[in-house]
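Researcher: Last one for today. Full complex below.
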Amino acid sequence: MIKFNKVTKIYQPDTVVLQDISFEIKKGEFVSVVGKSGSGKTTLTRLILGLEEPTEGEVFFEDRNLESVDSKKIQELRRKIGVIYQDYKLLPTKTVYENVAYIMAVEGKTDEEISIEVPKVLDIIGLTGKDDNFPSELSGGEQQRLAIARALVNHPDLIIADEPTGNLDPYNTYEVINLLQKINLAGTTIILATHDREVINKLGKRVITIEKGKIIRDEEAGRFII
Amino acid sequence: MPKTFTRILKFAFQDFNRNKGISIATIFVLLVTMSLVSGIFFFKGMMSYLTAQIQNKIDITAYFEEDTSEEDILAVKEAILASSPDIKDIEYVSKDQALQNFTEKHGDSAVLAKALEQVGDNPFLPALNIITNGETAQYEQVANTLQTADYAKLINKVDYSEKKDTIEKVYSITSNINRFGIIAGIILIAVAVLVVFNTIKLAVDSSKAEISTMRIVGASDWFVRGPFVIQGVIYGVIAFLICIILLGGFSYLLSPKLSVVLPGFDSFQYFLSNLWIFALVQLGFGISVGVISSFIVIKKYLDI
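Model: Here's the assembly. Have a good evening.
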């Protein structure tokens, strides 16, 4: 589903973020990307979303080289990806309900579909009753969950979670990871970027370890070793 | 796609409503600049009225010798009319007509009536009243025609040469005012456009992070841009409604004061008779600047 072929990313003038990275992620996999802050995890997820272009090498999403895809097509690809950010990236002037509904509207879903789907997802994520609140009226954990609800609602092919548990207490962290595992079981590919040792060791799934922009380990059922 | 369009429309009104502070500030700036542009148009209207008034008042009068026959005078009239297509009007005033005009105008003045009585005979000369469109070149031309040998002997005097300096001065003042008005207008409108552009840029800038989120979740260009562009239209329309009401109110209230300075100029009447032009200028200015600014500013953020 995703293929990195000798990808190097250099931010001008000479900050090398990723160096000669190659790996492949198959449909239905649950892959954790681990590394210290600044090791290049976030850049890696931005490359998959087409938010950055590689300085060298190619990034493929569903066999398409992202560099040769035009902006309209990129937007269509992004709709197949649900993204969860550490800083949530919610729409501050829209309510909880509208934040989730917006994603469905982007997809061109009907109002009827939206009014059925959104309450369902809010229920799963435990935000029922907060429909009319704005993101600024939610706690950190609730905002994080809203970000997850938004990533789930369109049943994307791929979920990229960049430090999704960064602001959560152990209990909420467990809940979120549990949820991601459930979604993965239903067939969705998951890329989880994190530096949470506990989470990685408990998962027992494939782990790609990045250090100073290079892949130093790529193991099935890996552990957190830096 | 009507579904997408209604959503864009809904988002636009929702954002407008939820960002009231920014919306009001933008409308206010738009209103101020719009009033400025309308003010320039109003001023231009007053100026062209004034110029027309002055130009109508300055005319050339050719006084003929007392014994000149009406036939000869009318022949001169034809000759002048033939000399230039821009002559507005030539009025023949016979001796009797001149006397009658005088008594009508000063009939109630005992002194003048008495003076006239003492002169005895009708002291007035037959004349041609020539009204041109006010350009000095025309005066020269008319004067030249009157000076040709055939006519010169019929003519007692032409009051053009006496008025010449005044006419030229008035003409140069009015054309200077017009030129200055156009230059000042262009500069002010350019400033107004820049101010509005920057205000809308600030409004859109405050949604910068939101726009990037919309892009990340796969929203198409128009799905992101649409609400901002439509908000531009809403700003323009609201500012227009306020501006046209204010302009109408002011021109109504100022009308009596202005007619003291500019006799015969009714500012409210001017506003009413040019209502469509004012509406078009304001609405055109408001909507086009609002929409184009949103469009340009947002283009930068769509590139992710």
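The helical segments of chain A are 41-48, 71-78, 96-106, 111-125, 140-152, 170-185, 197-203. Chain A has seven helices and ten strands.
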